[in-house]
Amino acid sequence: MIKDSSLLLGHIELTKKQKEFYDIMSDNNTRIVFLGGPAGTAKTFLSVYSALDLYNSDKNLKILYLRSVVESADRGIGFLKGDMDDKFGPYMAPLLDKIDELLNKPEKDQLKNKRVLEAEPINFLRGCTWRDKIVIVDEAQNMSVRELTTVLTRIGRGSKLFVCGDSLQSDIRSSGFTKLANLFKDEQSSKKGVYSVEFSKEDVVRDKIITYLVEKIELLAPNQ
Description:
By secondary structure, the chain is of the alpha/beta class. The protein is built from 9 helices and 6 strands. The chain has helices spanning about 15-25, 45-55, 85-90, 95-100, 105-115, 145-150, 175-185, 185-190, 210-220; strands spanning about 30-35, 60-65, 115-120, 135-140, 160-165, 195-200.
């Protein structure tokens, strides 16, 4: 049972670097966090967990999940039938997976009934201003500098952005994620509430075979 419409988040064991992100996220002055690292380092999981944690503290918040519609494959699957919800549905899978991991059915029903969760592709953001929203920008390595600039400049009063990306898994030629994450990796940005946190293979929390895979792929990356 859930008490007073509060979400009961389960315990997760964090690495040192993941705890650093959680502490940054919890700071009221934090506005934007770039969260980089290889597959399996719980970037999306921690962002969803943190968004739910913030919602627990303020039930007026909404959680918005953003993702590029670039497909993570060398060959596309082609035209998808249906309306916008049908077309974007497959791209929401990472969000729904994390919600399933963290919440039981009554808790998920509560979010649905209160319309806490929202999801959009990045294509329709110009002119928007986000107020009182926790925005999770996933697969940000598939966004250009221009697209990410559009995303970042939507932030408004009472909102926070978590921008997740993995430079090893970019499906576009001119990714802007690493450029912007490095641009804001300085003390001046931190004072403004903008942080850049980089996970490494030591932070992998999925099957440890992923650590081995990442190590091997890192050797290949400079020669791609």
